[in-house]
Amino acid sequence: MTQQQRFQAAIVGCGVVAETSHLPALRASADRVDLVAAVESDPERLADFQSQYDIASAYTSVADMLSDCRPDLVIVCTPPATHADIAVQSLEAGAWVLLEKPPCLSLAEYARIEAAETGGGPYAGVVFQHRFGSGARNAVDLISSGALGQPLVAVCTTAWYRDQTYFDVPWRGRWETEGGGTTMGHGIHQMDLLLAMLGEWEEVRAMAGRLARAVDTEDVSMASVRFAGGAMASIVNSTLSPREESYIRVDLTDATVELTHLYGYTNADWRYTPAVHVRDAERIASWTDLPQDVTSSHTAQLPYFLDAMAKGERPPLSGRQGREALELVAAIYRSAFTGQPVRRGDIGPDDPYYHRMDGVTE
């Protein structure tokens, strides 16, 4: 029996996401990966994190960690403005990279990350964990196979609530440090799942506003999106919604698919409603006959990334696939701030929205 390859990992950024999402994922894959190092700019937080989770090495510098430990995998959980530099630095040192969302501030920064990758690895991937729950994988398979008919109409809602104290953290709510507001920092997860279900978008028309929070970015956005396959979708992103909900609905010729959750789902959060002309009970039952119930989570995504590392293959949500949601976000901002529709491919290196999500040129 061939022994499974083991990897050494380092976490950069020891905040809430690292503690509540990435550490459980690493523990669940402890037979394949060891957490050997942590990096944090706050020495007191770093010491607490190292002690609490029994991590062998701790650093306040990414460069020192890469030189000393030479990890196979670097997991980046720092504020978005630091992601691109850490990713490039890690890739050039030979480490694979898993980036928290948003992966970086702009399409230009994402291109920098891609340029630092090497064929056969290392590669950089993005944490979009909602693609990896069993419910989503089932829905994507059903839609892509044509089992539910042709996608026609969709709704994608991220209606969350964040009070002003949330945005009082210095790097939040600022274009130069967070890259955007609710569209970039919150709705991007649901929009990525919508892209998994419907494929490439073709045209975007959008609005965005700053209605209630003292921020530089938007706290609400709305977009109408036409997809290459012909389906049309309405997207709403908000951090002003007291009754919080994450919701996706796709109406196809033979069924309606719905997902209602908040920050993660199980199979029970998915609903399939057959069209009136679909009466085959066995066919309808097959839509929800899943052998496993895998919750959408970092724990669900990490094994796919480790599999790719072991094979020297590009992991899911890296390269072009990892860029899809970022391209949609950029199109929403460009349409909202210019008042013009945006077609796929419009935002290239000569466009200001390629370099900053607010389109500001310096």
UniProtKB/TrEMBL annotation:
Domain Gfo/Idh/MocA-like oxidoreductase N-terminal stretches: 8-116
Pfam families in the record: GFO_IDH_MocA, GFO_IDH_MocA_C3
SUPFAM superfamilies named among the record's database cross-references: Glyceraldehyde-3-phosphate dehydrogenase-like, C-terminal domain, NAD(P)-binding Rossmann-fold domains
GO MF entry, a single one: nucleotide binding
Domain GFO/IDH/MocA-like oxidoreductase: 138-257
Residue intervals passing through the bilayer: none
Gene3D superfamilies: Dihydrodipicolinate Reductase, domain 2, NAD(P)-binding Rossmann-like Domain
InterPro entries assigned to the protein according to its UniProt record, in alphabetical order: Gfo/Idh/MocA-like_OxRdtase_N (IPR000683), Gfo/Idh/MocA_Oxidoreductase (IPR052515), GFO_IDH_MocA-like_dom (IPR055170), NAD(P)-bd_dom_sf (IPR036291)
Name listed for the protein in its UniProt record: Oxidoreductase
Species of origin: Kibdelosporangium phytohabitans
Lineage of the organism: Bacteria, Bacillati, Actinomycetota, Actinomycetes, Pseudonocardiales
